[in-house]
Design brief:
about 750 residues; alpha/beta; TIM Barrel; Immunoglobulin-like; 20 helices; about 25% helix; binds (3S,4R)-3-hydroxy-2-oxopiperidin-4-yl beta-D-xylopyranoside
Length: about 750
């Protein structure tokens, strides 16, 4: 890959560019050294060409990530520059997103989720991205990090919603099956894993750091007995490692987190908590090999305004790594970036920071790897994040800029690697076996009383009786209190219903009367539920949960109450959208089937005169044959407008919630299906034979996935009527093969087993 000396040499030079003399004279030396390098092909200088080459004799891993766009099209991503660059510079790699639950689990909760076998759960998972990552020959010699098995974030919404309502046993079971299913997909092709990511809370209530509350915590910590021991969070995490070892026996297993790097002995600190818990887990028999330090760092913590290194900062992280070494735990630097905030440091000082950090890390006998989180500043997650989270720090966090030009930061990494002694072997210690026993790792278990969700109609009329569902966890005989109240000051409570419940989890339906005297129109209301000690009313409420935006309909209410249609359609389908609205005279209902982002192309429109008052209708939308096949790209947008008016005067609109419309490819692309060709599988040779009518026209074969993505394309030379379709590299599944020959076209469905 590394063919151009001009591209490569600045790096080698820069690696020694601590010397300002070299920096100034770089252009002159460049030409000179280019010539030299060409002459001395096997000279050590050319061996210093890339980070990867520098790392080879030192036996360390210097890695980077593969973004979604990169994985989807390695050959063309960033004009085809990113992938060769990745392979030239790095010897380790991680998928930035595609191994996370939000990409692997299905978009909707699988039916009967608690009764699935591992194989059945596996069948619901999306494996093709992981497969593309692990089976790409070009990346065969890169060390692979799996990121991440269990994480509260980047998980599907349905999971975040339902997991807190499961029992401890169900949380343990699901986690186990997910990990084993993931293991079946990955086989022995992953070298190391972030087994659990970001499990430590950012809070330290009462001066004591805690595990992160949320998705799994509540029920994985409910103190019940499970098949895997008592449901405490420590036991849960131990078992996560036990299952991870079972699923991935070849891989090194890490607990990964941010903000844990600098040494701190206070029990309030994340660092102390991480060290204590990693050691305790290992002592309790968890097969944990080490800790991942994400290392999303800030330059001003590392160098002064004049560029002098803060050696205490580096020494403090060294102390953390050494402390873990004393317990037989390793450290990997897993997501390194060092951001510049508010221009308070010269970007060039990143060189000092990257160099010191990498050299310190690589010099520890229990640390062999640094992964940088992004190939170029422009593609780094900090630059791309479009909320206020990294305000002021967006521009420069990693080692290369546009066109993969190395920045001083790159030189820092190179210098760090060059400073290391040569080594015979990578210094990994043997995998920690753990004891695999059902968990018994102590830790506190407590189940807090909670309201998990409240659900009721979003539009009501005065005098209605409505049903509000409340899902709760009670730890004693307690009261569930539901209020129907104003959602703004003075928060008048119009209805209160108190229901007695006994200890345990459940869902109750509460009947709420909407009084006749509720003002309509102007105010928004809400349902609010909380759980309180038995008979003690509101003063000791434990937790509340609110459903906002309940509208009380009056005679002149003008709004779309709900609009719901199928989440998956094919071209040629007629989609039925259930619309509920409240309107006045002279209005009409409009429903668009459109792209859910700019340019919001509208492919189909439904219009109907609205009846005054509250009504339910079914809007039928024909999905055109030529709508581009796409995943998650469409929405139904429903609006109420004055008759004869258009969208600028719309009164209320609602797009179908979070449900994206998947347009699935259909058999007949473009409607025509007049080419009679035959396909028959040839399992012995692992291919399909295709017979096409003899013709002077060349035939174009296009293979579509069930989602309509083109996965393979092939052209027959004209005059040929028989050919083989090799599908080795394509994952099993259902595909559509479309053959276009002149003006004739045909499509067949194929099953690749
Ligand atoms: C980030 C990715 O870089 C982004 O593309 C994505 O939108 C959000 O997640 N800690 C982690 C990583 O463990 O998975 C996160 O990656 C960055 C913080």
């Amino acid at each position: 890959m590394n063919s151009s000396a001009e591209i490569v040499l600045p790096n080698a030079l820069g690696a020694s560019s601590n010397n300002k003399f070299f920096v100034k004279l770089r252009p002159v030396f460049l030409t000179l050294l280019s010539l030299l390098a060409l002459l001395l092909i096997d000279n050590p200088l050319s061996a210093q060409n890339s980070l990867r080459e520098l790392a080879a004799p030192k036996k360390v891993y210097i890695g980077n990530l593969i973004s979604n766009e990169h994985l989807d099209d390695p050959e063309n991503f960033r004009n085809g520059l990113a992938d060769p660059h990745l392979r030239q510079e790095y010897n380790a790699v991680v998928l930035e997103n595609y191994m996370k639950m939000s990409f692997v689990l299905p978009a909707d909760e699988p039916a009967d989720i608690h009764n699935l076998t591992v194989e059945q759960l596996r069948a619901t998972l999306t494996a093709d991205k992981i497969e593309a990552f692990l089976s790409n020959d070009d990346w065969a010699d890169l060390r692979k990090r799996g990121h991440a098995m269990i994480w509260f974030n980047q998980a599907p919404d349905w999971l975040k919603l339902v997991a807190p309502t499961w029992t401890g046993q169900q949380v343990f079971d699901f986690t186990r099956k997910y990990i084993l299913a993931l293991g079946q997909i990955c086989g022995d092709r992953v070298d190391e894993w972030d087994v659990i990511n970001e499990a430590i809370s950012d809070d330290a209530p009462d001066g004591q750091r805690i595990w992160r509350r949320g998705t799994w915590y509540r029920r994985a910590n409910d103190g019940s007995m499970t098949d895997w021991g008592e449901a405490t969070y420590e036991n849960y995490i131990k078992m996560i490692f036990v299952w991870a070892r079972e699923a991935q026996p070849q891989a090194r297993l890490h607990i990964n987190d941010y903000g844990i790097e600098t040494f701190n002995n206070s029990v309030a600190s994340k660092n102390r908590f991480m060290r204590d818990k990693a050691k305790a887990l290992k002592d309790c028999g968890a097969p944990i090999d080490g800790v991942g330090f994400q290392s999303h760092l800030i330059l001003s913590d590392m160098v002064s305004s004049t560029g002098v290194l803060n050696t205490d900062f580096i020494a403090s992280i060294e102390e953390s790594i050494q402390d873990l070494a004393s317990a037989g735990l390793e450290v990997a630097i897993t997501e390194l970036d060092i951001r510049v905030c508010n221009n308070d440091r010269d970007e060039a000082f990143q060189e000092v920071a990257f160099q010191a950090y990498c050299e310190m890390a690589f010099s520890q006998p229990n640390c062999h790897e640094v992964l940088i989180w992004g190939l170029r500043d422009e593609d780094n997650w900090i630059t791309l994040r479009d909320d206020q989270f990294f305000a002021g720090c967006e521009d420069a966090a990693i080692v290369e800029g546009d066109n993969y030009t190395p920045k001083p930061a790159y030189d820092g990494v190179a210098s760090a690697i060059m400073a290391l002694p040569d080594q015979e072997e990578f210094g990994f210690s043997p995998l920690v076996p753990g004891n695999g026993a059902p968990a018994n790792c102590g830790g506190e278990a407590s189940l807090d009383p909670a309201i998990l969700f409240v659900n009721g109609p979003t539009a009501v009329s005065a005098g209605d009786q409505v049903t509000v569902a409340v899902n709760y966890i009670a730890t004693d005989n307690q009261d569930i209190v539901v209020w129907f109240q104003l959602n703004e000051a003075p928060f008048t409570v119009y209805t209160q219903v108190v229901t007695d419940v006994s200890s345990g989890a459940g869902t109750i339906d509460v009947t709420v009367d909407i009084p006749m005297n509720v003002p309509t129109g102007t105010f928004q209301y809400r349902y609010l539920a909380f759980i309180a000690p038995d008979g003690q009313g509101v003063d000791n409420s434990f937790s509340d949960f609110i459903q906002f935006q309940v509208t009380v309909l009056g005679e002149d209410s003008q709004l779309i109450i709900s609009s719901l249609g199928p989440a998956s359609v094919s071209p040629g389908d007629t989609a039925e959208i259930n619309v509920s609205y409240s309107a006045i005279e002279g209005q009409e209902i409009v429903v668009w089937f459109q792209l859910d982002q700019s340019p919001f192309t509208t492919y189909q429109e439904f219009r109907q005169t609205a009846m005054p008052g509250q009504n339910d209708i079914i809007a039928k939308l024909y999905i055109p044959q030529d709508v581009p096949i796409a995943d998650d790209a469409y929405q139904y947008q429903t609006i109420l407008v004055p008759t004869g008016g258009g969208w600028p005067e719309r009164i209320a609109n609602i797009s179908q919630g979070d449900i994206d419309v998947v347009v699935v490819s259909s058999v007949a692309q473009g409607g025509a299906n007049n080419l009679n060709f035959r396909v028959y599988p040839n399992p012995t040779a692992g291919l399909f034979n295709v017979e096409i009518p003899a013709s002077s026209d060349a035939a174009e074969l296009t293979l579509y996935s069930a989602l309509g993505e083109v996965v393979h394309q092939q052209l027959t030379p004209s005059g040929r009527s028989e050919l083989s379709l090799h599908l080795h590299s394509i994952p099993p599944g259902i595909y559509w093969l479309s053959v276009q020959q002149g003006t004739s076209q045909g499509v067949v469905k194929l099953l690749k087993q």
